[in-house]
Design goal:
The structure holds two protein chains of two kinds. By secondary structure, chain A is mainly alpha-helical. Chain A contains nine helices and no strands. In chain A, helix 3 crosses helix 4, helix 5 packs across helix 8 and helix 6 crosses helix 8. Chain A is elongated and about 55 Å long. Chain B is of the alpha+beta class. In chain B, helix 1 runs parallel beside helix 3. A four-stranded antiparallel sheet of chain B has the order 4-5-3-6, sandwiched between helices. Chain B has a two-stranded antiparallel ribbon with strand order 1-2. The chains are: A mainly alpha, B alpha+beta. At the A-B interface, helix 2, helix 3, helix 5, helix 6 and helix 7 of A face helix 1, helix 3 and helix 4 of B.
Chain lengths: 202, 225
């Protein structure tokens, strides 16, 4: 097999517009013929997404590649066992999430979720301080406990439904709703503009 | 079957993030949108969540993606790991030192069967040679004489393409390693630890860990023997 012959032509795309059916075709090729090109394409579809997600989980930079490759090692070895009961993306990102938790444990890094959130540690933003809403929002996102941050990232960055987020995080749907509810409340305390936002009647 | 209509403010409030990202369940969409239409508080919250969603995505769009070369290098490492795990690298049973790399388990059985046949023929030829030369005093070199330390700790290594031979040799000699097989189909080598290196406390695991950190090395893994 030619190791260097398969390059991903669109590997710089942040979030390639791939459909579940096209990804399942890739998975089928992997199962049927151990197709390296299909495996490379699937890897490329997730590399940027997982890199971002794992960095949001506070996985150390040097461990991110290992977590992604451990994830795709499972994809390669267990591809035939994927029954299609869920979205392929839910399966792959769920594997990555659990692998990342293991990496955090191994590195003896306590996930932020283990630490109580100190609301006083995040100042209230104001335009007088020269900070933009975007900057304060980014700060607020960083301050969220890890599990809340993951629920928010999976919902808004990766565009998953509530049920898919629950499958990835391996928790009940109501737990996902609660985590996002708390994340929203926290962000409002960080950024009062969010709390006072007028509703439009459109 | 009629759609479920909870129409409670609390339940609508909890689902607003998925109305904002367009992934609310079809069964919930109708009553949820109707509620939001009439609830000023939910409309304000929906607008707030859309702002959060757009900001999060703007941050993603503006952050530089990981370099394509990083992605390719990561994939190469993974592929080398897969190929190494699916291959069985063994030293050649002759004196040439040529590697015998057996791809996957389904093919391994066939290869092993073929190897047994070849070995049997070789033993027959050797036996005839011994009989013909009995009493002549000539020495017979056996496979075990060629490799007296068959069970020395060993590692499987894949070097970056283009790594100069001199660099490979330097890396290997610093760790007390000698190539005993390779390269295989995936460019993988099998290297054994010298007796001196073992005596000084080196193990296949420790040497593989050191080798794996070298920029010339794509993959290094101890071999269970």
């Amino acid at each position: 097999m030619a190791l260097k012959s398969v390059e991903n032509p669109d590997s710089r795309a942040v979030s390639p517009p791939v459909t579940d059916s096209s990804e399942r075709e890739l998975l089928d090729r992997i199962v049927r013929s151990r197709d390296q090109a299909a495996f490379r394409s699937l890897y490329g579809n997730y590399y940027q997404r997982l890199t971002r997600l794992l960095s949001r989980m506070s996985v150390r930079r040097e461990d991110i590649e290992e977590v992604i490759n451990d994830t795709f090692w499972v994809v390669w070895t267990k591809a035939a066992e994927f029954r299609g009961a869920s979205q392929l993306s839910t399966w792959i990102i769920g594997i990555a999430y659990r692998r990342a938790l293991n990496a955090l444990r191994r590195a003896r890094l306590r996930p932020v979720a283990d630490e109580p959130f100190d609301e006083d540690s995040v100042s209230v933003g104001s335009s007088e301080e020269g900070e933009t809403n975007e900057q304060w929002l980014a700060l607020g996102l960083e301050s969220l406990p890890m599990e809340q941050r993951m629920a928010l990232e999976l919902t808004y960055t990766l565009g998953h439904s509530c049920e898919e987020v629950a499958a990835i995080l391996d928790c009940p749907v109501n737990t996902v709703k609660t985590r996002l509810f708390r994340a929203r409340e926290t962000l409002k305390r960080v950024l009062p503009e969010l709390a006072g936002m007028p509703g439009d009647k459109s | 079957m009629s759609a479920r209509i909870p129409d409670t403010h609390a339940e609508a409030w909890a689902l607003l993030p998925w109305l904002a990202n367009g992934r609310v369940q079809p069964a919930d969409r109708e009553w949820l949108e109707a509620h939001v239409q009439d609830c000023e508080e939910c409309r304000a919250e929906l607008a707030a969540q859309r702002l959060v969603a757009s900001q999060v995505n703007r941050e993603v769009a503006e952050s530089p993606p990981a370099a394509a070369s990083d992605e390719q290098r990561s994939f190469n490492k993974l592929w080398a790991r897969i190929e190494a795990s699916e291959s069985v690298a063994t030293p050649a049973s002759g004196t040439s030192g040529v590697a015998v790399v057996m791809p996957r388990s389904s093919r391994t059985v066939r290869w092993l069967a073929a190897a047994v046949v070849v070995q049997a023929i070789g033993l027959g030829v050797l036996g005839m040679a011994v009989n013909n030369r009995a009493g002549s005093g000539s020495e017979i070199v056996t496979v075990s004489d060629v490799e007296p330390r068959r069970h020395a700790p060993a590692v499987r290594i894949v070097f970056e393409p283009g790594t100069p031979v001199a660099s490979m040799n330097t890396l290997l000699s610093h760790q007390g390693l000698s190539i005993v097989a390779g390269p295989g189909d995936a460019g993988n080598f099998m290297a054994e630890l010298s007796a001196d290196a073992v005596a000084s406390g080196a193990s296949a695991e420790s040497v593989a860990a050191v080798m794996a950190k070298d920029p010339h090395v794509v993959f290094a893994q101890p071999i269970a023997r």
